[in-house]
Amino acid sequence: MFARNAVVPPGPARLIVGAFAAVAWCGTLACGAEPAGEAPEAPGDTSPYHILVTNDDGIDSPGIQALATALGEVGEVTVVAPCRQQSGTSMSISLDEEFRVRATPAGNCADVTPASAVRLAVRVLAPESGFDLVVSGINIGANVGEISHMSGTVGAAMMGAYLGIPAVAASQDSGPGEFEHAAGIVARFVAELRRRGPEIGIVYSLNFPAATAAETRGIAARPMGGSYFHIDHEEVTGDPGAEVADADGERRFSVVFVPPDAIPAGSDTEAYNEGLVTITPLRFDWTDHSTVEALGGWDLEALLDRR
């Protein structure tokens, strides 16, 4: 059962779980994660700052837990995320007739895509004043370059932008699974966004190499470019197994990740491969405006069938 109007006990790191249940984290998070030690001090603005935290790796991912803890030092955090792994779903949405949301020790989880989790949270689980920011992550695996278009992490943040809420996506290279360093940087970035006032319609995509604070070479703002791997397919040969033995004409393929031949100079992919933390501002509007102008020079009326 969900407890409406639950009382939130005081504490330095506070997590407001949707509109239904409240949990005091009291310095540690579910699954035993330690609080991020690098979070910034709270901004001077004392008005409530409501942050929706989501991801595409599922509610139990250690990345979202580290992120929620760190952001609890910046604002009031609501967690609404898919109940299970949803990587590669981009901005796809769930169109089921009924959505089920349940409270867990880590936050609210819903049996929906990441983008739909954001839509659901904004429409029916938000605090009365709404959300000031959507933060998606920390994803297990980087999302630099063109891979970003396929990312459920970025897609969830894009849904925030679509709904008129500034958004941040955070991803970290698959590595030892320590997210506190990245979570601290995200929290400081969010505190700076709050101070400056983020631009609506922009998703700030942050990507972290698998490195400790001492190993991190620097941080840079870069445009999207290239891919640090390409997704391809190869045919699987051999005995297909009894379950498909009678499938006439069936062929089987598996996904393979192929390194690129070249990476554009000055791109986020280049900087990331050099060991830098990257920040890439992405627009929800994909329009190529110069091509719109060029199409104005076509005889577009000639394309219509006026017979």
Question: Could you please describe the fold and organization of this structure?
Answer:
The protein has helices at residues 62-71, 114-125, 152-162, 180-196, 268-273, 289-295; strands at 14-17, 21-24, 50-54, 76-82, 101-104, 107-110, 133-140, 167-172, 202-208, 219-221, 230-236, 252-258, 277-283. It is an alpha/beta fold and 307 residues long. The protein has a single domain, classed as Stationary-phase Survival Protein Sure Homolog, Chain: A, CATH 3.40.1210.10. The strands form three sheets. A nine-stranded mixed beta sheet has the order 5-6-4-3-7-8-9-13-10, with helices on both faces. The chain has a two-stranded antiparallel sheet with strand order 1-2. Helix 1 crosses helix 4 (180-196) and helix 2 (114-125) packs parallel to helix 3. It is globular and about 65 Å long. Mean pLDDT is 81; it is low at 1-39.
Task: State the main characteristics.
two-stranded antiparallel ribbon; 21% helix; nine-stranded mixed sheet; Stationary-phase Survival Protein Sure Homolog, Chain: A; alpha/beta; disordered N terminus; 307 residues; globular
